[in-house]
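Build the 3D complex.
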Amino acid sequence: MMDYPAILSLVIWLPFVVAIGFLITPVKHAYVRYIALVVTVIDAILASLLFFNIDKEMPLGAFQWVDRVTWIDSALLKSQYLVGLDGLSAPLVLLTTVLGVCAVIASWHINIRVKEYFIWLLVLQTAILGVFTSLDLLLFFLFWELELIPMYMLISGWGSGRKEYSSMKFLIFTILGSAFIIIGILMTFITSDPNTLDMTMLILNSGGNLIQLGFYGATFVYFCFFIGFAIKLPVWPIHTWLPDAHTDAPTAASVILAGVMLKMGGYGLLRINVTMFPLQTVAYSYFIIVLGVISVLYGAFMTLKQTDLKRLIAYSSVSHMGLVLVGIGSFTSAGLTGAGMQLFTHGTITGLLFLCVGLVYDKAHTRSIPDLGGLFIRMPLVAVAFTIAGLASLGLPALSGFVSEILVFTGAFSGFPILTILAVLGIILAAGYILWMLERVLFGEVKPKVEHVTDATLIEAFPLVLLVIMIIALGVFPGILIDVLDQAILPVVTKFGGV
Amino acid sequence: MNIHDLFLISPGLSVIIIGLVALILDLATKNKNVLVWTTLGLLLVPLGLGALQLQMISTGYILDISSSSGLLEGKYNVDVFSVSLQMLIVFAAAITVMISGNYLTDGYKTKGEYYTLMLFSAAGMMTLVSASELILLYVGLELTGLPIALLLALTLTKSATSGALKFLVVSALSSAVMLYGMAFLFGFTGTTIIPEMSRSIMSEGSVVTLYSNTILLVAVSLIIIGIGFKLSAVPFHMWVPDVYESGSAPIVGFLSVASKAAAFALLLRIIYQVFGDIYVNWPLLISIIAAASMIVGNIMAMVQTNIKRMLGFSTIAHAGYLLIGVAAIAIVQNDSSFRLGVDGGASVLFYLATYAFANLTIFAGISVVGSRVGGDNISDYKALIRKSPQMAIMMSFALIALIGIPPTGIFVSKFYIFSAAMENELTWLVIVGVINSVISAYYYVRLIKVMFETDNTDSDDNKMDAPGLTLAAMYITTAGTIWLGVSPSWYIAILEQGISLLSGVN
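Done.
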């Protein structure tokens, strides 16, 4: 058993410390990206060590590698620096650090304001890791907000197209979501007895004996959190920031945005809404599933008419994140585990898709589907990765997407057969748009714009290979992930009579 | 006059003396730097004295704070509350001295008067936070306002003079309104000493008649209106944008930070020592003013093109956030009366300090850019990251702080104020506050965006070199913003002690 003090804090803060180092030392621009790569790789190795050593037998509300320091201690406010890992957060921490490595490599060609760029990228990684690991609501919110500014800067500073508009839209939507979340946090804090922001205590609350709100008061708090997280996830009809932000962000930011940042919403739903307010989740399951199904179908239909590759993947993200809601609404062990797994698998799959699109865009300088064609001939390596990611995205068996989707569907089917069938329709649509897209982009004759493109270089290919391995591995051995997730999710379900 | 009394009033007194020293020094030397450095160095004295007083209070050495014997006769309070605020005011004055250098090199023909007037105003504010007697309070109020009006007019341009005149008129008007309210209070209670007033109301108030209630309602309303002008709260805010636009950046920064702190101190003292015994629904009044200030301030700030005007409206909005904390002081009891709580007051004081750090950083930046570019339009800040990366980063950080995004002091203070309000069942006001924070993000971020906007044509030749002293001031205030954001606990503890002592006097 690995038990080093502050190892989790090291994982969280390492990128931040290095970013500060970039800021205050005159490090040469040429070295910045190498240092960033080394740091993210170290972070990923540490995170994977933590992931593979997580104790799968922990009871509900127990966490590993907990670091606890009193932060604010006054008559009213009591807050701690409290971080820890359990089965729900460990996979997401692993995902964040792995995609962090991919993002740094995808940023290799960045040549304007290099240092500033990598500072923001590293700060972003710390903020997201903080969200997944913090166990104090105020600290959680601190990290949740901290992530805003780096992402805003990355989109508005290094993006393309209508980057000003998109980044501002992203910012306003997210801050709006934060407003709901902070109201939820405040109400939880004030109505808990004794007043506490400590999630390890609040999670044990579950039935509502700690948070003295009554059912409808708790429902209000529940929906404050729900709206805040739903904006991030994103859920129809508050998803509109996502296609814009994705389309105009630089590749690395898209990878982080789709791969990890959306998962913050799903994580929040699972960690706070499901675990702390299970009664409300059960009571409003119909509503949640309907929203999920609408997102699935709406995202899928919108995908069919996109001509911009990034926008297409963005809408497919809306569709796939809808499945997370379906899984949560079902409130069964299979559904919730599927939702948690969907977070992870979608992170790897969409991360890979965006990496491929980024490479295509870098070489061909276009993302417009009609301008592309015959990439299989010009850049076979990228095309293979692209195909695998696409097939995983549409849920081909033996790839990771299949497992999470089938879990969600089996979880939801018994309680909500009609809605589940509708959601499955979304997957059929996904097969349509993905295969059609692959056919147009990768096959056929070589279009003039891609006449002179070259394949990915060795370093560019590395993240592609890494993610392909993860996708296949999880498709074949889903138990690696499911066992870990079950530690955090099963106790909640069994406690409230689910199956 | 014994030495003990002298020690008690020494911080304020020393600030006045420093002002006079600056005036004489200006005549004696032609070297501007000597003047600035001497003033700065001497300002460490009141800071040190304040720290010493805090230390002595905590060890129980200063005991006869509220005794009615001696020179002070209970009219001048030296407690944690007033001393901590006095130190904040002196700090703001010191930062203002540090950032005034830019303006004094070109705009002003005069130098010594500038520092003297500013320090006199600071002494007025320090009197204001300590006074617990109406007449002394009024003296403090006027001593605060008049030098500021002069300072605003000091450049003698047309817009500056009209702004100063506006400030003077509004200041006189609000003082008159407040004085009227104070007269009612005096008439009802027969005393001008605030703690004794409370006792008098208690004895009268055992029989609450319609008559006494009406008198008190009028008194309370007039005082709140009078203070409302000083707080720049809606609907008494009309002067703010004009004065902010026409005034010089350091003075406006000083006004927005120190003057606001003093006005809130006055409000808190009156609330804790008098309003607690009055069964008038002042919390509702304050809540409505708070909501209106936030909404009007934030919405108007969105459409501004002049940065100082924008910050003027932003300061109105922040007065609104602060007033949430003031409204949260009253804890409503079951029988619809209320008692006073500590959390609201402490959160207001904490917010004042964090707001001071962030706002001073921005005004320091504005004073440099304004004097280099010669304009205060938001577009003048384009590509500031190229021209002066340090200033751009620190100003952006302060703007992020003003939104309330971590890791900054205002994030903690907003959370503190909101939870105090939430605890006292002001949920609607918290929701208004949170929504307004979202709105405010729009215009603050727009400014950040402008500063980071570079079309790659900007070469290195138009570097904007900030004076070392101003940069140092920005570093200090930025460090303060981070410090209170990362480690707020110790300061909150002091403020809680201050507020509980203040309300305990009651």
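Confidence is low (pLDDT under 50) at residues 66-70 of chain B.
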